[in-house]
Amino acid sequence: MNDHKIIFSGPVGVGKTTAIGSISDIEPVITDEKASDMTKTQKPGTTVAMDYGMISLDNRERIHLYGTPGQERFNFMWEILTQGGIGLILLISNNRPDPFSDMHFFLDAFKQFIGSTKVVIGVTQMDLRNKPRLEDYYLQLEDSGLKVPIFEVDARVKRDISLLVEALLYSIDPGLEG
Amino acid sequence: MKSTKTMTNLAEPSLGPTRLAAIGMDQRQRNALHMIFSSRCNKRYVLTEEASSEICILDLDSFGGDQKWKEFRERHPDSPLILVSINSLEISDRHTLFVQKPIPVERLIAAIETHRRNLVTVDTDSEPAIEDIHCNDIKPIPGEVRVRRKAVSTRRAALLMSESQEQVFVGTSPDIDPEDPDHVDKIFYKPEHYLQGLAQQALNQAVRYNQNINIQGPWPEITLDIVSNKIWVSASDRQLRPYSTMPDTTLEVQLNPVKTDWTPPVDATEHSFQSFIWQLALWASRGRIPAGTNIHQPIYLRRWPNFTRLIITPYAMPIAALWAEQPRSLLDTASALNIPQRYVFAFYSAANAVQLAGETRRAVDTLIAPPAIRRSKLRGLFGSLLDRLRGGKKDHE
After folding, report:
1. Contacts of residue B397 in chain A, CB cutoff 8 Å?
2. What whole-number percentage of chain A has pLDDT above 70?
3. Are residues B275 and B375 in the same domain?
4. Which domain of life is it from (chain B) (predicted)?
């Protein structure tokens, strides 16, 4: 049995737990706790350790889906979680006060991991707030030289999250036959 | 004309106007048909291209008419066909009707209606016969269910649906030889002659003048709402498609400003600007590229298309991944990914229509050959994961 992992990250309340649940074979293991700090304004419960889901493939291989805790005080765990990971799926909520700042923060925090793998970005809650537009996110990344896929996603919709994963895989290996 | 041995059905019957293709007819003849259909038949029929048509009309008197007929039957053995010729002809094929020229409009309509009824009737062993019908006489068939005469298994139908969808968006053109000018000529289309071009023009106008625009033509109502960044269409995709697949340079079209307090009709379908023009470009191009595109020039991708909200043609994702890395020519892309050229052409036409892709002007891109695709050690695993994601068991949609 071979094991591999994909990392989901992003700020509190962005939909990481839901996104993992959308494609996981198992009910995601959720470590939500009652929020006791500023995060309680975002959602009543928040992930304090990590989320976990899994996809089993026919050839006895498993893809583990790890969701990082959204709060910055847990960022010591991020490096451990990413070791050996296939790539990063970064979720950003368009409905948070400063989504660009969120994006830059997480891209910076995972810089080393992204440098050795790839990242794709899913922007959630665009139905609640339609600005900034996807184009604006790309403009924000122009200086960094990063040409990453950025899609509008609904974390509840399997197709949306699947397409993010597909884009991640093709970014790593465009010659992949699918 | 090159013959193709691939046998296909014409497009499945739709709930919108009956789609007809005119084979072996010049633009003047097509215009005449278009005028008859628009003015005398209340737009019950529309002209479209062969691949998206339900019934074809073939002019036997055109150059190579007999050969065109033979090739048509090789491609579509059971599809409804109306032959027209100045010489009288006995037809023994139950899927073919004959109307002698000069074409009496009533006879032509009667032939179309005869085929149309056969398209919606589950079974009929009798030979089709033309009865004179006027457009005004045409009434909906009670309980009309527009299915083809032939019963097919569910599995087969599902396969056909997928194939026909691909045919609609990507076409079926074989790879071209870039050294053969005749081949190269066939891969071009002129977006400005299609609804795609009009929609692009309307969008430019709407953005430039910050004004809602209505595209007025023979199609259902199309309005660009600059406030909500949406396009509203008073028809389903199925009903709109026939108008998007046929080039027409003679139509009188108006781009009219719409009042700011305009509200969309209750039954209108909502599209984003990008998804609408993307779709129109796929319908119009069907595996071709805009005229003037240099097939040897590297293509850049400005940014990834928002694939979660767009029609994804086969191989669109790897093509995007490749171009995001480094510009490559259309032909080199097909060759590097080992895929038919039409998939690359279709994706380029759509991405180009929404200004996400274009020919690079940087000298460095033409000087340096693109690198070979790097192969991941986990390619096998990724392939299994892709299969799984595309056919997985869970779905929250």
Report:
1. 157-159
2. 85
3. no
4. Bacteria
